[in-house]
Amino acid sequence: MDIEAVKKEKTLVIIKPDGIQRTLIGEIIKRFERSGLKLVALKMALATPEMVEKHYTVNSEWKKNVGEKTIKAYEKKGATPPSMDPIVLADKVLSHLKKYMTSGPVVAMVWQGMHAVGVVRKITGATEPLSSDVGTIRGDYTIDSYQVSDTDGRSVRNLIHASGDPVEAAAEIALWFTDNELHNYRLFAETVLYDANFGV
Ligand code: CMP
C-alpha cells in the first residue's frame, strides 16, 4: 500500500438538489470538515442531463451495482423488487436521476485526506435513508426508501452523492473540476493528523 497516496486521497461529494432545498449545505460541510479532511475544491452548478449520465456511468459496473443493491434492499425487507433484472432497474434509476439532479443547483466539492473515500462514505451513510445509521448525514437529516421512491417513479432523495472508490473518485473529479480548480495547500492540523514524528 502506498501510504503517502492514502494520506492524499481525494473524493467527490455532491450536495443534491434536496440537500440545497433543505438548507443543509453548511451542516453537511461541517460534518466533513470536522473529521480532519481538507476541502480542496468547491462550486455551485446546474447540471445537464448529459453531465448526470456521464457522472453516473464513469464506472462501467455502476448499473449492475445499483440494480443488485436495490434488489438486495427489497429482499432484506421481504418485499418484491419492481424487476429482478439489475440493468432494467438501473436504467430506470438513471432516467429518474437525470430529472432529479437537474431540478436545481447542486454543490460539488472535493475532500482530501487519509482514506478520504471511506471516511466520506462512513459520514454520509447508506444510500437508502431508511437503512442509513443514526449519526450519519443521511440517517440524521432525511427520510426515504426505495419502495416509496420506486412506487412514486422518482430517485431516492438522499441529500448527497459520494464517490464509491478512489478510481471512481478520480474520474468523477475530472468530470466536475479542472486541475486549476483543485487547490494545493497545507492545514496546520495536518501535522497532528499525518506527521509520523508528532508527539514523539
Ligand atoms: P447516489 O449515492 O448518488 O448513487 C446513485 C443514486 O441513485 C443514489 O444515490 C440514489 O439517489 C439513486 N438510487 C439508487 N437506487 C435507487 C432506487 N432503487 N430507486 C430510486 N433511486 C435510486
Task: Describe the protein's architecture and organization.
This protein has two domains: 125 residues, 2-Layer Sandwich (Alpha-Beta Plaits), CATH 3.30.70.141; 55 residues, no CATH class. The relative contact order is 0.22. The chain has 200 residues and is of the alpha+beta class. It starts with a helix and ends in a 6-residue tail after the last helix. The chain is globular, with a radius of gyration of 17 Å. 48% of the residues lie in helices and 12% in strands. The protein binds adenosine-3',5'-cyclic-monophosphate. The site of adenosine-3',5'-cyclic-monophosphate has 13 residues, from α5, α6 and α9.
Overview features:
binds adenosine-3',5'-cyclic-monophosphate; about 200 residues; 2 domains; alpha+beta; 4-stranded antiparallel sheet; globular; single chain; Alpha-Beta Plaits
